[in-house]
Amino acid sequence: MGIKVAKFGGSSVADGIQLTKTKQIIEQDPDRRYVVVSAPGKRFEGDNKITDLLYLCKTHIDHNLPYDQIFQVVADRFMAVEVNLGVDVDLLTQLETIRENLRRNPSADYIASRGEFLNAILVAAFLSFDFVDTAPLIKFDSRGKLLMEETDEALRDELAKHERAVLPGFYGSTPDGNIKTFSRGGSDITGALVARAIKADVYENWTDVSGFLMADPRIVKNPKQIKTISYKELRELSYMGAGVLHEDAIYPARMANVPINIKNTNDPADHGTMIIGEADFDDPAERNRIVTGIAGSKDFTVVALYKNMMSSERGFVRRILGILDDYNINFEHLPSGIDTVSVVMSNKDIGDRLDDVLDEFRSRLRPDSIDVLENIALIATVGRRMTLRTGVAARLFTALGEAGVNIRMIDQGSSEMNIIVGVENKDFEKAVRAIYNAFSEEE
User: Fold this and answer.
1) Which of 23, 75, 384, 422 stands 20 to 30 A from 323 (CA)?
2) CB-CB neighbours of 177 under 10 Å
């Protein structure tokens, strides 16, 4: 018998119907002993997430506008769930406490966290589990930085007292007792922290999709499901814009080498996607797969700097990064040659400052020439074993050539786990489909 931590996202706990599915899933496996819940999400198209309504309350408070009707919508929704589930947790008292605190203009973190707090109380009663508040257990310092080791110890000690428990995601507290939230999607982080603390056998992340797909289904029709992916591959795909878990959301589980299973609340029999360490692949088909996934995004600018004898000029790249730092601009990639270096930046980051940055490059770097490529899309082809198989790059470039896509930039990360190509924005979707078709049948 093992221990599983099950985190259920907003769509999985949106109403009584979804919560009934959640209860059935938990009861099917007695190993699912610790449950982390988000605030209720949208029940239908056009509906509001509870967290969005709570943030709206804060906005109204800050602008001295009436907020009672907005909070009443939140209260009515939770009261309806209480009735639908047939539980009695004295929700009115909890709601009145929150209402009273709203009159004191509390922090946005406190207001936003109440969705998870109230939902966890309801779900705990519905499952007949203990309710464990994460406020005193997930610890941040006074600057809002997560204290990993202190959190690990507090969760481990507290959960040892509970055979089964429901915990709210998304928040903890600072040393002065004030509520501090993670960024949006922080319930995933809470689940990973709990899994790490109790040394879970599996961390299940339940959502409304059956795991990750090899490519964006809005671009590729019916892309294959990724059944198994390594932590590092997930990091690469996430960085390139794939709709997958953020690195922060898996880091605690990754550090403890706890496998993460992405599952679908509406299709619990589906295998989903398993996230594991590279050494843990035991399926030969998965172990020998070349390409795991394809991800990318549009709207980048590439500034190519050429200077004769650049490689012998000390501090050249450092000065490039110093200029970007002066303008608070991040670089996405920095491919280079003997006398050339290209700076890849997001258009969103640059804003309307490109001419100013180029002037700084000219005056402080004195390059022989500068070429600027605008409206570039970046596409990453990610896989663990690409460098071990001959002809992978050739197949990729051939596929793009046959599709009539002109490659404007090529970069391969030092991890040798991805090949990144830059194409024009207008060719982005065509390029993704061409790469997918070239590798999707590979086993």
Assistant:
1) 422
2) 8
Distance CA 421, CA 438 (A): 15
d(CA 356, CA 323) in angstroms, rounded, equals: 10
Q: Where are the beta strands (DSSP E) in 265-385?
A: 273-276, 293-306, 340-346, 369-382
H or E segment to which residue 269 belongs: none
pLDDT tens digits, residue range 236-258? Answer: 888 777 766 766 788 888 888 99
pLDDT at residue 443 tops 80: no
pLDDT of residue 101: 97
- Residue 26, CB-side half-sphere exposure with 13 Å CA sphere: 28
Side chain identity, residue 32: R
Cα distance between residue 321 and residue 36, in whole Å: 41
H-helix or E-strand spanning residue 146: none
DSSP letter string over 365-420? Answer: H--SEEEEEEEEEEEEEE-SSGGGSTTHHHHHHHHHHHTTPPP-EEEE-TTSSEEE
Report pLDDT digits (tens) over 215-241.
Answer: 999 999 999 999 999 888 888 888 777
Confidence of residue 392 (pLDDT cuts 50, 70, 90): confident
